[in-house]
Structures are given as structure tokens and as C-alpha cells.
Amino acid sequence: MKDKNEKREFKLSRRQFLKASAATAVMAGTAGTSKYFISQAVAGGSPTPLKEVKYVRSTCSPNCTSSCGIRAMVVDGQIKALFPTNDYPEPEYGPRGCLRGLSYINVIYGPDRIKKPLIRTGERGKGEFREVSWEEALDYTASRLQEIATKYGPESVCFSFQVGGTGHVQKGAWIALSTLAGWNLNHPYDKNGDLPMFWPQTFGVQSEELEPLEWANSRYIAVFGSNIMVTRLIDSDFLIKARNNGAKLVVFDPNYCPTAAKADEWVQLKASSDAALALGMARVIIEEKLYDEEFVKTFTDMPLLVRLDTRKRLKAEEVKGLDKPADIPPYRDVFVAYNGQFLAVHPEKLELPLNVILEGEMEVELKDGQRVKVKPVFQLLKEHLTGYTPVYVEQETGVAGDTVVRLAREMATTKPLHVIYGASNYQWYHGDLKGRALALLPVLTGNIGKPGAGISTYAGQYKIRFNVKEWWFPKPPRWLPWLYILNGPTKSMKAKWPANGVKAFIFGWGNPFDQHNMADRLRQMAIKGDLEFIVGMDHQMTTSCLYSDVVFPVASWYEKTELTTTPLHPYMQLQQPAIKPLYESKSELWIAREIAKRLNPDFEKYFFPGLDENTAAEKAIELLLATGGPPVAGITLEQLKKGPVRLKSEVPGNRQIPFYEQVQFKKPFPPVSRPAAIEATAQFVKSGRIEFYKEEDTFMQLGETLPVHKPPFVESEYALNPGAKGKYQFAFITRNSLYRIHSNHSNNIWMNELQDNKPKVFLNPEDAAEKGIKEGDLVEAYNDRGKVRGYAVLDPGQGRKIIIFEQGWWSRYLKGDSYNSLTYPFIKPTHEVYFVAGIWAPNTAWNEALCDVRKAGEV
Ligand SMILES: Nc1nc2c(c(=O)[nH]1)N[C@H]1C(S)=C(S)[C@@H](COP(=O)(O)OP(=O)(O)OC[C@H]3O[C@@H](n4cnc5c(=O)[nH]c(N)nc54)[C@H](O)[C@@H]3O)O[C@H]1N2
Ligand SMILES: Nc1nc2c(c(=O)[nH]1)N[C@H]1C(S)=C(S)[C@@H](COP(=O)(O)OP(=O)(O)OC[C@H]3O[C@@H](n4cnc5c(=O)[nH]c(N)nc54)[C@H](O)[C@@H]3O)O[C@H]1N2
Ligand SMILES: [Mo]
């Protein structure tokens, strides 16, 4: 399947390379831009004239969480090599940079680079375009968007971008333009399936995580389906350091992944059975009284009483003799606890007396004279968990019952405990239930808000860590979750569906026609013309660009000015232009400004008119720093030009420890999830506490008031098609690849050589034998929705009845097939109970897909 058209246009001689390495050695540890002169010796002759060599410190910015500083060596205006940086004030975070990032030069100067603006001439998806001037491309785009907005309403135009952390400035320009024009925005976090819905449900936040430097403080690290050795490669050494410090590392994964290989213990469990395991462990922790009673009473909803008649929490205003205090904000509720008397529990003051009761049943007199029975949440949980016996857990998970009991005791007694819950694990239909069950482990044991303790989910550079409002939202944004675009509106949706649907689609920083074309829907919407106009922005000719009507060539990370952050390390960094934008490419801010002024002359003023694109970007950075609030207080552009700067926090040393303020200073839950206002997210946990009891009607109807184990596929695949049960027995897991960052590097010839230029289908040898498949056979994973082919890799460490196909291959390497044609855009009703974009919204469940596998004919 090797693409014969690929060749690397850019060459570096061995001699030049050695010189470059020597020069870098001298430069190691410095940051910013500097100029060097080296002489180029010509074999056997005199030295050639001096060449200008400069080193520019920039940041690698695919959506991979690492956000590595990179130094570009530029000789006479061309990037000759990329080197890792080691300039972090805390040396533990360096050196940063992996083989993918360091070989991005193959992409920057590669054959897929888009040279000029393009307008489609042939059918969508076929890649027939004519090269046009910027003037023509911009005029055409602005007039088509205007036409569609007039005909269907501006909300029928949708701008789909990718995670904010990889660049606040350029993306911000398009977000700002969308708000000015009244377009809809797609939030990337739920679109990617990266939004772990247990977070808003339990803690009221978008997501949280310990910074890796804190891993070293843990004594027990329990990893549930997070392949850190591959997907957090640059920071994976922190895991090893933690082990060297005496921490125990246990990896729970159906597959013997590289992270399991580094663990003290690998626990192989059945796919998507994590909730059963966690609830089995929680049962042991409660029955053996290994929980932290004071923590549970102070910070959780465990002491709050639930009415047995309505199954809702008892509210203070219902109880005879109790009242709701006057100063309660509208997004809070006052519930009731019992310590011999009924107590109104103030939702903003975490100060219940410690003699409050966690167990038993009480009777309470209501204001209308009615007497009703009530129980604390803890009592209900305890009763609920009695079903999760070692025998049941073993049956559901495949993990021996005595192992479950032993691990529960270890986790409860070895502190600090850190649970890491991986994206692939929550990208299942019941990912929220698994997360709620897993959260019980650190919460019951008091491992929250403390160094080295907690539960973390590391997925993408999603996090907005300071206030971006002044640059991003000149007008209030309007958001439409991705899954509705694919599915159409649902009866229970809270987001607003545009009256005439989505008619124009603009994308940038992403490759949705490979990465998000679930069940081929997006491609069909383009081919059938439901989407009347599609605009793509990329520096490479991706599959998505092939489906676009207009393609804008944009500057790569080494050709423009940007501001980046990631949840995985605490540094703010710049992208600084090492070279001029190649060919006719331009930065997104420039393009946004040009479209803005064509749509409405009043819009241009928001985009620093008259300034060149890099100066304008610097102005935007200054604005963001000036208005970003406490996390960026005192940080200046000049400082950032010199190197990475740590963001500020309330924790000593500015460490990133989630809920530190809640636990140390007894502030109510939740802390803010930017850019949403606290009013929008605090309603998720109305008690101001960590909540395990969800009383909203949808949770009740689905039997999910408390965390529960539900097996995969029953409410998704089998509900969609009962016949799927017998027909398709393999779980189709599309984990992330070592050789790509999603579809980035799909066309990087070095990365492809390392994979023998062949997509792979991983399966267990016993499953392969049953299917008559041998190592290296070309096989096809398929279901009623689609198929994808690859070469069989038989891995005895892989779980039974699992097919792994590593996501990210561009369609052209799959002969037009797509791994995402097998997946399906299921929407879980509990994700629709509230709507705050990217915080409580329907999350994509990539792994909730069934398939079968067979030998394929050569293609
Ligand atoms: N090299 C590389 N690194 C990346 C990325 C990339 O594309 N390439 N992408 C980045 C982004 S945006 C993200 S979101 C993250 C995601 O990174 P991760 O969270 O690590 O996700 P995956 O690599 O998909 O899968 C991790 C593990 O989950 C296991 N798993 C699958 N289902 C289950 C289950 O039901 N239970 C349990 N216990 N385990 C399960 C898989 O076997 C796999 O070993 O990676 C980031 N880092
Ligand atoms: N089946 C399946 N599908 C998945 C997943 C899965 O596990 N299974 N994982 C999901 C996850 S976690 C994620 S995060 C998504 C990622 O999905 P996408 O973000 O759509 O995928 P990428 O390949 O990261 O796309 C990045 C594109 O942005 C371009 N780009 C890079 N820099 C710039 C820039 O500065 N400006 C512009 N305009 N473009 C730029 C790159 O060239 C590349 O084409 O995929 C999701 N899709
Ligand atoms: Mo992601």
C-alpha cells in the first residue's frame, strides 16, 4: 500500500547534519532567536562564504498533549533541522520533542503542502481544483457564506475547530469572526470523544488532571486504559520516576500495551468492564471501613438524605422546622443531613459536624405534615454495592475475585493514590458510568486535592486555562455539538438546533472527513449536497480538503506567531515564525480579517487592521495576557519570547493539583471551567459537593442515579440492531498510534517507513486461528456500516474478541476506506441533561462499535 508518489523534496547532507548537531550542542539550554554563522567546508576546497544560521524557539502543536518546545535550525531561510528543547525552568520537563515532531520537516516541505488557494472544479472528494488568487478565493468565500446566511440564517453556518490549547490566537480569530457573524461553533472536546462526562456529573468541572511532576509524589498509580508510554511519551518518564520513588504502578487494560509492560502489575480485564471492577473495589473499601470518613462527610454528598418515596434528595425547604437560607445562589440547592437532628446543608460552606450520620434509615416530617422515610446517599451506595461481590465482578470482568479484594485493600491503604482514566476507556457509551465508579476510589479514600493524589484524564490540548473572552468572544458564542450535526436534532437536546439545519461547514486545525466521518455520514452530507458550502484551512492536502469547495493554504507552526498551553505541563509557550510562510500560505488571523471585512466593514476593527500578520498576532497575545486573569498575571510577551513561563495557580509552587482550593480552603465545588461562567457549571453539582447521587429524571429512568456497571453494546449496538448481537462479536477499538498524532504524520515518510508502510489490524492469535488468519495476512474488519483493511498482527497480549485498528490513517492509504465508517454517532441521554459547550454535552464513543474480521483479497 505504499504511496509511490511520495518523495521527500528536502534533503540535508550528512556533513550539514553533523555541523548542525555541533552547533546545537553549543546552543543547548538557550531559548529565543539568535544568529550564528557557520562556514560550509567544501570537500577538498576552500570554505564557501559564510551562511546565516539562526535558531528559533517554537512549539510543536499537534493535538497530542505534549506541547514540546522545539528549536528550528534555519539556514538561509530554510528549516534544516528541528531539535528538542531543554529550557524549562524545571528541568524535569525537558528535554521535550519526539521523532514525530522532529521529522515534521517532511511535512512542512512535503509534497502534500498546499501552495495556493484552491476552488473546487470536480466532484467533492475527488480532489479536482483550480489554483486561484487570494482575492478570488476570499471574495468567493465571503459571498457564498453571505448567501447561505441570508437564505437559511447565519446559524446554519458552522465553524468546526480543534482544541484551544494548541493555539489561542489564530483559532481565536476565527472564533471571534463566528460570533460576530452569528455562526455556530462546534466544541472540539465532545466531538473528539475526549470529554469524560463523569467529571461534570461528579465534580461539576470539564476535566482535571495532576501535572506529571506531581506523579512523583504518588505512592499508588492505578492506570485504567491510558497508554502513557505511547500517548504521553515525552512525560512517561515521570511514571518511571514515581516507581523509582517507591510507587506501585498497576495498569488495567484488556491489552498488554506498552504501559502495561512497565507496570508492577497488569490486570487484564474484559473490554468496558471497568465499572464492575471499580464498584467491586468500592464495596471492599466500604465494607472493611477503609474509607476516609471525615473526607467523605466534609466534601461529598454521602451524608445527604434521599427520600425513599420520590428517590430525590430531601430539600431543606420541604422539612418542618428547616428553611432555605436567603443567601443561596439560584444554581444551588440546600439539602439535608442528620446527626440526631435534621440539618440544612449549606451548599457553599463545607462545614457539616463530623457526627453526621452516613448509615441507616430515618423518618422525617415534612412541612405538609407528611412523614417520609429517608436514607443518606452513603447508605444507598452501600446497599447498591452489595451486588458487586467478588464472584459477580469476576464473571463480568474476567479478573479473579481475590485479586479485586487485594487491589482494593492496597489502593485504600497506600496513599497518595492517583487514578488515571484514559480516553480510549471513556470513549465508550457508558464511559460516564465507568468514570463515576472509578472516581469512588480516590474520593472514598480521601485522595483528592492533595499532592500526588486524585483522578486525572489526559486527553488532548483541550483546556482553556485563562480568560480568553476579550479576544475570542466579541459577541456571545453560539454552540452546536458535533453529534447533532451527524444525527440531526433529538427530542431531548438542550443545545439549539438551527432552524434550517447546517448548510455551510468551515473547518480548520482538524481533518474531520477522516477523523470524524462517523458511519460515513459527513462524507455523505458533502456528496449529497446537504452541506452546500465547505471551506477548509490546512497546510496539507488532507482528505477533508479533498471534500472542500474552497481550500485556504495556511502557515504551519514554524511560519506564524501563536500562544500555546497544554494540560499535561504547566507552561505557556509561543510559536515563533522560523521561516516565512511557504508559497502563498497565510496565517488564519489574516484570513479571518480578510473575510471579516468582506462580510461587514465594521468587523475588521476586531482584527488589528493595518498590521502585518505577526504583529497583529502579537497584539492579540498582549490582549490575552492583559485580560487573562490570575493564571497569567504578570506574564509578558517579552518573557514568553525568551522561553516557557509557568502558569499561576493557588497551589504552592504554582503546581497544578485539582481541587486543592476546595480541599485545603473548603471552597465549594466546582472550581471554574473556562471559558464557561461558574453559574453555568455549578448547577451540575447543586450541593456544592462531590456528587455520586444524580437525581435528574434521565438518570432515574436509566437506573443510573448511583454509579452502576452496564455491559457494552446492549443500549447502543443491540438497541440499534438486535441482529448485531449474533453477527458481530468483536469490539472495534481504534486506539492512538505511536507513529501519528491522529492523522498528523499520516504522510510523514519516515514514520511510515517505521511501519513498513502498512496499516495493521491487531488481534489475538486464538481469534485469528478461528478465523483462519495468519500473521501478515491482509484482513478486513467490517460491519454493516463499513470496512477497513490492514495487515494482521497476532498479539498474544491482546484481549479476546477485540480488533484494534490504530486511528489516523488518511483514506488514501486505505484505498479510500475509512476506519470511521465502522463507528456510530450514538448519543447517550444522560449527556443531554444540561448543555454547556464542551463541558456537559454528548460525547463521542469511538469504541462502542462491533465488527467481524475476515481475510481480504488483495487490493
Ligand atoms: N502518539 C500519539 N499520542 C497521542 C495521540 C496520538 O494520536 N498519538 N493523541 C492524543 C490525544 S488527543 C488523546 S485524546 C490521547 C488519548 O490517549 P489514551 O487515553 O492513552 O488512549 P488510547 O491510546 O486510545 O488507548 C489507551 C488504552 O486504552 C485501552 N482500552 C480501550 N478500551 C478499554 C476499556 O474498556 N477498559 C480499559 N481498562 N482499557 C481500555 C487500550 O487497550 C489502550 O491501551 O492521546 C494523546 N497522545
Ligand atoms: N475512530 C476514532 N476516531 C477518532 C479517535 C479515535 O480514537 N478513534 N480519536 C479522536 C480524538 S481523541 C481526536 S483529538 C480527534 C482528532 O481529530 P482531528 O483534529 O480532526 O485530527 P488531526 O489529524 O489531529 O487533524 C489536525 C489537522 O490540522 C492540521 N493543522 C495542524 N496545524 C495547523 C494549523 O496551525 N492551522 C490549521 N488550519 N491546520 C493545522 C494538520 O495538518 C491536520 O490535517 O480524532 C478523533 N477521532
Ligand atoms: Mo483527543
UniProtKB/TrEMBL annotation:
This is Perchlorate reductase subunit alpha. GO terms for molecular function: 4 iron, 4 sulfur cluster binding; metal ion binding; molybdopterin cofactor binding; oxidoreductase activity. Keywords: 4Fe-4S, Iron, Iron-sulfur, Metal-binding, Oxidoreductase, Signal. It is an enzyme of class 1 (oxidoreductase). The lineage of its organism: Bacteria, Bacillati, Bacillota, Clostridia, Neomoorellales. Belongs to the prokaryotic molybdopterin-containing oxidoreductase family. SMART domains: Molybdop_Fe4S4. It comes from Neomoorella glycerini. It holds the Pfam family TAT_signal. SUPFAM superfamilies: ADC-like, Formate dehydrogenase/DMSO reductase, domains 1-3. Its EC number is 1.97.1.-. Residues 53-112 form the 4Fe-4S Mo/W bis-MGD-type domain. Its cofactor is [4Fe-4S] cluster.
